[in-house]
Model the fold of this input.
Amino acid sequence: MTLRAGVIAVQGDVSEHADAIRRAAASHGEDADVIEIRESGLVPDCDVLLMPGGESTTISRLLEREGIAPEIEAHVAANKPVLATCAGLIVASTDAKDDRVSPLGLVDVTVDRNAFGRQVDSFEAPLEVTGLDDPFPAVFIRAPLIDSVGEGVEVLAEWDDRPVAVRDGPVVATSFHPELTDDYRIHDLAFFEQVHA
Done:
């Protein structure tokens, strides 16, 4: 089986996410055909989607301008998996608490942008994540804080008693950057657990 994985390639660690998806697929004896999405018309052909970090206001504006936003919403409505990380989480939220961001409402959470501080305040922490046997080495870079979660949202991991990874239906969203490690288990959790369910 070949999984068609789309990475929203407006900003962020596109190649790192592509590598992680390929490694996760290989661990299941499968291939991942990864495409970079910068325009409309490509999302409908994808089995899974990834929304990387970057600058949330820029990502939001470009998704709207290029007509990609409604395609992502349709992807989730069809119960296809999405992994949204850092700024991707902000854009995927129901409330970004920032008028410059047009949230897609894919994950029923409220977020605070840059709540963990500036770039200089970046850090790495071992996280206990639901579904993973061993701690995950989470990298936080100007990470958003998940302020509140709606009913039906599963909290997968917390740091300092605050949610930093959640699942809402087919969408897994993290405050941290799982692609900045050699550990692909978050990508595996987000995609292959659902694809093979």
Remarks:
- The chain has one domain: 2-195.
